[in-house]
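Q: Hi! First time doing this. I have a protein sequence and I read that you can turn it into a structure. Is that right? Here it is:
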Amino acid sequence: MIQLNNVEKAFASKAGQFFVLRRVNLEIREGEFVTVMGPSGAGKSTLLSILGMLDGDWTGEYTLDGQPVHRLKPKHRIELNKKYIGFVFQSYHLLDDLTVYENLDLPLTYRNMKSHERAGLVADTLDRFQIVGKKDLYPSQLSGGQQQLVAVARAVIASPKLILADEPTGNLHSRQGKEVMDLLKRLNEDGTTIIQVTHNEKWAAYGNRIINLFDGWIVDEPRG
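A: Yes, that's right. Below is the predicted 3D structure, encoded as structure tokens:
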């Protein structure tokens, strides 16, 4: 599903180029649950941003489900993102001027669904995440944990083929964290490809493969 060939990301500095990612070669098959681990500054979130087509300033080749992302214009990358990807951000990235209900409805507007179908799916998702009572609230009225639950719900509501999760349990207590990880595991078992970044070895074990990053390089990639 995903093929990266010699992908690199660098910034210009007074001392020359500073590389965030170096010669990343990676293949992820459809239906895998992959965990990316490594110390702070290793390039984990940068890699996720490139995979999610949120960052276009890199070199190398990236193919997603047969589509050569490295050759696509920004407009077509955005279309591919909306079609394939659900993203859970560490810092939520909910839209502050939309209610919880409206935040959940937004990804569905890209899927050519009828309004009653969208309403039914939002209602089911609110119930599934036990946030029905929050549907008319705005993100600023929610706790950090509640915002993260809404962010996860928004990422999965449109049944994307690929979910990218950057520390998806980072702001949740252990019970909520387990619920989110159990949900991701069920989605994976149903065929969704998942790539998560985490520092938590317990959550990392939910995946079937761990990719270790260090100073932008993939190192000793063990396979499950």
